[in-house]
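Cross-posting from the modeling subforum.

Setting up a comparison between two proteins and wanted a second pair of eyes on the formatting. Protein 1 (sequence, then structure tokens):
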Amino acid sequence: MSAVLDVRIRWRKAATALAGTALFAFGLAELYVPLAGYVEGEGPDLAALPAGWLAVLTVLLVGYGLAVAGCTSYPRTAAILAGACFTAQSFTPVLPEWPVVPLVALLAAAFGCVAVGGRAAPTVAAVAYFVSLGIENAMAGDSDWVFILFVGLAVLGPGYAVRMRRAQGARLVALAAEREAAARTDERLRVARELHDIVSHGVSVMVLQAGAAQAVLDSDAGQAHASLDAVQDVGREVVTELRRLLVILRGTEAAPEGLPSLRRIDPLTAGVRLAGGQVDVTVTGDLAAVPAAADVSGYRILQESLTNAARHAPGATVRVSIEVTGDALRLHVVDDGTGSARRSAGTGHGLTGIRERVELFGGTVSAGPRAQGGFEVRVELPFDADASAAGLIPTGVTG
């Protein structure tokens, strides 16, 4: 879009420069090669003008040409220059009634000033037009103000219409730029959230398993090997998730079965169990009826909740309740770990990610320590078609 606008601006400048040059050349031809008497025989004979007046008129011709050539690049300056030249010519033996050049230059400069000038441009154009023509009218002894007003409205009116259209176009371009910037920011946040969910869960489980292997390395080699095998399995799962995310970010469609799903949560619960905890899962309703975006978001929310439980309350019992109704998906994750440790640990990015996911669906979320100990997360994701579609558009895996 920017390149197209640059080309248009260059062509417009070239066109106005060519028009100014052509008008100057035409004026020179009228001045130095008079083919007929001035205004059909009325007025001075151009061929009989002294050299000094010819030089003055030539300078004024240069001013007219520059005003037309710069009417879009320097609109207010061009309008003032055209008006000044028009006024100055009113005090020469050849009034601006001289055919074509002076009036055309003044009208072109006034039109360009109104159409593409700044805030004060319409006022500058109107003053330059009416003042210069008023002085010329007085010097010529003519009082045809109706004609002057008619021509002024015929030129300044369309110029103002062009001005309004340009302003509307500029507003639309600015609005599109704001929307694009907001979309990019939203995209970065969604990708960051997805990466956090993938990496945080995998690394947390791997750290726990590596610590467990180190603790029993000398006393129970078999258990140490099992923990290290779990580290490898989780590592491979994380790599697979990251590759799937990269494929989607590159624009390749992901198969529905490749997306995370609440129907496949065994790897999530296994991580907590390997950390020494226990997970009890209760499912109510048909998980196959959950829309894809809500299914993915529910999986990520459950993943973050179980990751927090494994990280901050190792060895705790975690109860997971998944309920599918006709219009919503409800998740309830509660553990019996130490509440005080949970409040003081972590950065809060996981809970922020959960809230962001829920907001996309217009759902509700509550998370915090329980009075009787442990931590609780409650989430409700309504099945809204528009929100669900929006949740999958940016990356294909976030809700």
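Protein 2 (same layout):
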Amino acid sequence: MKLYPLFADLSGRPVLVVGGGVVGERKAAALLEAGAQVIVGAPGLTPALRTWLQGGRVQWLRGTFEEKWLDGVWLVIAATSDTELHRQIATLAEARRVFVNVVDDAEASSFHVPAVIDRSPVTIAISSGGHAPMLARLLRERLEVAIDPVIGAVASLLAQMRQRIRAHLPDVSLRRRFYERLLHGPVQSLLRRGQWALAEASAERLLDATETTPMGSVVLLGAGPGDPGLLTLRGLRALNEADVILHDRLVSLEVLALARRDAERIEVAKQAGNHHTTQMQIHALMLEHAAAGRRVVRLKGGDPFVFGRGGEELEFLRSHAIPYEVVPGITAALACAAYAGVPLTHRDHAQSVRLVTAHCQHSIDTLDWPALAQERQTLAIYMGVGELRLIQRRLIDHGRVAGTPFALVESGSKVEQRVVVGTLAELAEQAERHAVRSPALLIVGEVAGLATSLWWFGSAPLGTTASSSPVLANAAAA
């Protein structure tokens, strides 16, 4: 049976719900949200329904069902546990040409209540014809992820501008071009920030310039550490809206695979010895594509504001009046520690965390080593694989106990992840023995010792005898 999709305006219209139990309460709640005049017919009511009755939100027909309850109603929902009563209600409603929904009985129903995604005033409904409501709910969950909540605000703005849009763009093709540009331009970003006046002004400018090429925009997006499951929902939406993706070399192929298929992908790896020039080239690429009206995603590993030069890129965009937004990513310190079973803070071991970069010897010499060598704190050291022996020596020389645990997490969160553990005194030796390579994060502090017992992802840590993971033991027992 093919159903005809229909969105009904029930504002102020009487709708009968037969049944005062939990299911009847749920149906009444949805009807109240739609502004219906809800009438509940039942011998008794749930506490919530009684509260709504006392507040004048619902009416109550007390007792068992009678045919006269159907007088004047637009819809009826049968929500009791009496199958025979349900069939009777369906037959009487059919005779009166009143649409009826019988809970858990698709054949007796003349309309079905769909799974709903609410982005008011946008409403998306999914129906399985009443035959597989759980499937409809699962599909709704997937679409909830894909559809940005800001779409409701966009629809409200367009409703406000509708008459002006039609008057200014009588040609349908030009109107379509305007909608396309608006839906993929900076307006959504402004609405997401709650800046309604700026969004309205941006939409008005776009309307006036529809026959010209508008400025594009840039999203500075953190890709996370590599596991595509750690990409944020906002990040996923940005990738699917992008015309051009400028991505770092270390962004995983799995994350790139989530992007819009026809987006242009440009790798902008920074090569040693040519760092400054390469950053200038990245700036030039952002400007070039945004000036051509394209939606650019500057995709960076981890988080763009943690050792990612994101601030410099925003300063450049702002200086050239290019609209931008920032979508944070899960930085390596958080992800690598979590996937290695290392809590960065712990009541018994560490009350603070320091994020440090050790990209080269010059930057190492500028660090505050006496402060870094203090106890009861965790150090998360980025880009330090090439300077492990120097880091080891500096920390010990400035007072960090040589027996302090460390954990080196290579390719954190990816299937090839490796964790090497030991004490600070053997850091460089263990790294060499196990041929640790970049990208790898170094964690130093008492909490690093917990990796040997709390590990759960990938293989057991190397460099020491790890105890069996409680997580794995529980999984095996199950």
